[in-house]
What does this fold into?
Amino acid sequence: MSFAILAILALTIGLEVAGQLCFKVGLGGLSSAQSAQPVWLKVATTPLIWAGVAAYAIELGAWLFILSRLPLSVAFPAGSLSYCGIALASRFVLNEPVSRQRWIGTILVAIGVAIVSMTA
It folds into this structure.
């Protein structure tokens, strides 16, 4: 696997995490009980939601590039490292509690990706 492919794969993972963070923070505080404006309209007019959509759009292009260069059986497990990134971002960016079981699961995902990647 070349450095460029690894870098673009890392980009897709980073964009997945960034998109999810944008969605979560953008949705923070939205409640239909707080105003007469429908939740869907608030979502449609929230800049962070659109930033998350943009991150996903860029990720799609990068992911298609990755799929054209790597076997799906390697690319998809590697992409699951986004789960690890989400756990880290949840804890250290959003200050959400992450249980011991979730950390163990996150570590197991990372180990699984390492095992799959060794055969690539």
